[in-house]
Design brief:
globular, mainly alpha, about 70% helix, about 170 residues
Length: about 170
């Protein structure tokens, strides 16, 4: 038992206060990261998440077709009422985020928290339109959209309906 006012020593650095300093830095970092994710920016986070998913689908087939990028920009403009320059800026930011992100789960969590069923369906339709902009449905694109649909808790029937609608086939 420690006496009142006595300091505990870190097991890793018993003779210094290095352990206390390291823990202090870790706590500061955690606190700053928590404060940087302000709920006021949920609309911006939602826009960024949608843009990243559209970017990922456009590049899932490893072909960088300009027609898919053009469709992606149209989708961003329509979804958020953005001018072409603002949509392009959002697309570039999404590309940077996608390159630096190892997992899409945080983005999916953001969308699950902010989109209702209709919003998720609209997103799914946008994903299909981007994937099919080059008139080729690559298996990688379809697999990614299927995975995203599952992670967004979109029923499989809706997945199929939106796929058929994007392909122009009867429902």
């Amino acid at each position: 038992m420690l006496e009142r006012g006595a300091r505990r020593r870190c097991v890793l650095y018993p003779d210094t206060h290095m352990g206390d300093m390291m823990l202090s830095k870790v706590w500061q970092r955690l606190r700053s990261e928590l404060h940087n994710e302000a709920p006021a920016s949920s609309e911006g986070a939602q826009q960024q998440a949608i843009a990243v998913l559209l970017h990922e689908v456009a590049h899932a087939d490893l072909h960088h077709a300009q027609v898919e990028i053009d469709q992606l920009l149209r989708e961003l403009g329509e979804a958020f009422g953005l001018a072409p320059a603002a949509a392009e800026q959002l697309r570039r930011g999404a590309a940077e985020t996608a390159e630096g992100t190892a997992s899409l789960h945080q983005l999916i969590d953001t969308l699950n928290a902010t989109l209702d069923a209709d919003g998720k369906r609209a997103l799914l339709a946008r994903l299909w339109r981007v994937a099919l902009a080059d008139e080729v449905l690559d298996p990688h694109e379809e697999a990614l959209i299927r995975k995203l649909s599952d992670l967004l808790f979109i029923p499989h029937a809706v997945f199929v309906q939106e796929r058929l609608r994007a392909l122009g086939e009867p429902l």
